[in-house]
Input
Amino acid sequence: MDAKKIVVVVEDVDLARTALQWALHNLLRYGDLLTLLHVFSPTKSKSKNKSRLLRLQGYQLALSFKEICNSNFFNTNIEMIVTEGDQEGRKIVAMVREIGASVLVVGLHDHSFLYKLAMAHGNIANSLNCRVLAIKQPELPPLKVKTRAMLPQLDRSTNMDFSQIEISGFQ
Output
């Protein structure tokens, strides 16, 4: 069985951490390579200090994701990539292709690059060349009497809605 190259998009949102945890528990197998990819926005400032600070913050965020991996799964093959790119996802697409990923895992939220990429490019099937797994939390139904705080907390793995976006289906 060949080792898979799994790329997880690192963002400072809870859904990105949820997506990582989902990938660790449901996708990652012994020998697979897990790439934590963080793309930060370019600065409009000509100052190199601002860019350096964004890179450092991105690296620290990626380290916190690596810590999640190491606390649950020892001896995991992990690489971290922190790079500058656009908000539309072109840099993520380029990195996924360069890595030769078999799976891209993304926490799907309102500002996800997947939406922006789909809006900018009608046909993105040729862009990624891998499966895309978009993980999102289900929306809670409106409550009549009880507040959400009064509801029992469910385990995240049982409360998670799983969405699989097969890019080859978009044409």
